[in-house]
Amino acid sequence: MEFWSLLMVASRPVLQVLLVGLIGAFLASGYVNILSSNARRDVNKIVFVVFIPALVFASLAKTVTAKDIISWWFMPVNIGITFLIGGILGWAAAKMLKLEHHLQALVIASCSAGNLGAMPLIIVPAICDEDGNPFGLSKICRVQGISYASFSMVVGNLFIWTHTYSLIRKSVSHSSGNHGHDVLTRMNKNPETNRKTRMFDAQEEQDYDDRRALLLPPSDTSDRLAEHQSETEGQLLGRNLSDIIMHIWEKLKGTFHKMSEELLSPPTISAIIGFTVGAIPWLKAFIVGETAPLKVVHDSMTLLGDGTIPCTIIILGGNLTEGLRKSTVKPLVIVAIICVRYVILPLSGIVVVMAAGRLGFLPRSPLYCFILLIQYTVPPAMSIGTMAQLFDACQEECSVIFLWTYLVAAFAVTIWSVVFMWILL
């Protein structure tokens, strides 16, 4: 296909996303205020628990086979490479800009963790619906594309809720500790306060010595008192150690519980069920197909899944309005993230995917290769904002970063989609 034809095919889906996103932004604005933060949160829960699982199950159950599961082995490797390259570049950018520790973690997370679920689920079906799409018949392209994007979402969630979650959690803990240390340091910088503190400590020490002299036992019992005191201190030390161990254990249990909740989320569970149905021929024939006894179940899941894309875009447009009210991030930070996500990572992706194709690691499917390349081009994962809300940190910074990266994504994803299709075809 000619370059301009590819540009038209790639630009229309992004324009659709922009138009529907503008509707979400308008509904969330002060002029209408229908899509408030609470309303977005409730709709997002419905999408997460109902629409996305239905879409994932319907697509995977219809298209996936046991052979496909084996042949898609390079996708987890590819996603791991995106996290590795993006993390290294984000770390280098954070060090060059000399950011605070919590902002360093946010920049690294924004550069490494991409929106590997919602964005491919939005872009790929829209490209397949175009009459001149280069990936074959629209219906077949759409179902296969959703299957690839669903697998990408499942693997991406695994990386995000292990690597990125740990990164954000550690940065918040480090920042909290430093905050307490800074408060003590600022207090100690006051000479008058220090002088009064020393005087108070000296007086308190003298009073303690006087009381100790009055209450000091006879010399013949001092040894036994020392032994008793050492035993008491040993018991207290053992009790403190057990309390510390229990506290660490409770923290670890809470962390693993939260991670298991996210990793065993409804989309992930539906993907596992969809893979199982697709991989077992007799079970697939029982649910999928014109003569299947439970065809109505698959049709119902397909009907629910159709609401995923419009609801997701509307919520995304409403969430991005939060960034318009904030200005807490330096422009250089946003520029650095944009350069990493939309310049360096896509170029790296072309090298990695083309090398994997020449080595015979990839199936002969241009659409599959296109999904692999798109994984290097998507904006930061919205789950980073969820983690910021979870730890009550960097929420304003997340809003600003999401606003600008998703606005630039409208143009960057279009241009790179054209380049990727031109390379593959």
Describe the structure.
This protein is an all-alpha fold and 425 residues long. The protein has one domain (3-179, 256-424): Na+/H+ antiporter like fold (Up-down Bundle), CATH 1.20.1530. Helix content is 82%, strand content 0%. It contains 17 helices and no strands. It has helices spanning 3-28, 37-63, 66-71, 74-97, 101-112, 118-129, 138-188, 191-215, 219-263, 266-279, 281-287, 295-305, 308-320, 331-358, 366-374, 383-391, 395-424. Helix 1 packs across helix 13 (308-320).
User: Overall mean pLDDT score?
Assistant: 76
Order of helices and strands: HHHHHHHHHHHHHHHHH
The CATH class designation is: Mainly Alpha
The largest β sheet comes out as:
none
Structural domain tally: 1
- Secondary structure category: mainly alpha
In percent terms, what proportion of residues is strand?
Answer: under 5%
Transmembrane segments: 14-34, 46-64, 70-93, 105-127, 147-168, 263-283, 303-320, 332-359, 365-388, 400-424
Subcellular location: Endoplasmic reticulum membrane
Function: Involved in cellular auxin homeostasis by regulating auxin metabolism. Regulates intracellular auxin accumulation at the endoplasmic reticulum and thus auxin availability for nuclear auxin signaling.
InterPro entries: Mem_transp_PIN-like, PILS1/3/4/5/7
